[in-house]
Write a structure and sequence with these properties.
The protein has about 230 residues and is an alpha/beta fold. It has one domain (about 10-205): Phosphoglycerate mutase-like (Rossmann fold), CATH 3.40.50.1240. The chain is built from six helices and six strands; from the N terminus they run βαβαβαααβαββ. It has a six-stranded mixed beta sheet with strand order 3-2-4-1-5-6, with helices on both faces. Helix 1 packs parallel to helix 2 (about 70-80). It starts with 11 loop residues before the first strand and ends in a 27-residue tail after the last strand.
Length: about 230
């Protein structure tokens, strides 16, 4: 009698969501400074993305960066998914060091800004984190989330640069090219992490999510998927 083929484990799908708009979005590099909350527009964006994610009917967990703007976005999502919010420090914004709180218009005039845009792999923010360190940190967060949720769909609320790094890492895109990716406020970017490597299902999506086919979540006891295939 022929042996039946072993079922392929479902991948773990992470829906990366950038936090909603704040009063300083597009004007200041806030970094990890405390006390920055969502603007009214950001609150509305968080509610809207929560409604979009709820249409999937398959999300099993919500993770968030510990910063206020991310937690408030996660709260807006949780109101529709009726799930608790788990803080994951690996989803934190990059530590911009001495640049924290500086106006973007001023930073763009600095000679170092060219390195941020075109050679981030060799750049460290003065007194802060390097892009390479952020890449390693995000990879670690992804590995932990995948290990906890084999075959499930989860939400991870983070920030623009960390999400860019996660998406490009999954695609095997060099760190120096991450600035070619745009991550808008409350956009959804989805990566499926499977044993054979990650697959990017959506980037910077602000529209319908049901077409991604994530409605049917795998049972919680499915074999764990393993992140991999991208640059670490």
């Amino acid at each position: 009698m022929a042996r039946s083929a072993k079922a392929t484990p479902r991948p773990t799908c992470i829906c990366f969501v950038r936090h909603g708009t704040t009063p300083t979005t597009g004007k200041v590099l806030p970094g990890r400074a405390k006390g920055l909350h969502l603007a009214e527009r950001g609150i509305a964006e968080a509610d809207a993305v929560g409604q979009r994610l709820a249409t999937l009917g398959s999300v099993r967990a919500i993770y968030s960066s510990p910063l206020e703007r991310a937690k408030e976005t996660a709260k807006g999502i949780a109101a529709h998914l009726r799930l608790p919010i788990v803080i994951e420090r690996g989803l934190l914004e990059c530590d911009f060091g001495e640049w924290t709180g500086a106006e973007l218009a001023t930073l763009r005039k600095l000679p170092e800004w060219d390195a941020v845009q075109h050679h981030p792999s060799g750049f460290r923010f003065p007194g802060g984190e390097s892009f390479a360190e952020m890449q390693s940190r995000i990879a670690g967060a992804v590995e932990r989330i995948v290990a906890r949720h084999p075959g499930e769909v989860v939400v991870a609320v983070s920030h623009a640069d960390p999400i860019k790094v996660a998406i490009c890492d999954a695609m095997g895109v060099p760190l120096d090219l991450i600035q070619r990716t745009v991550i808008s406020t409350c956009s959804v970017s989805v990566v499926a992490y499977a044993a054979g490597g990650p697959s990017v299902l959506a980037v910077n999506s602000t529209g319908e999510l049901k077409a991604l086919g994530l409605e049917s979540a795998a049972p919680a006891d499915a074999s764990p998927a393993a992140p991999g295939g991208g640059r670490r």
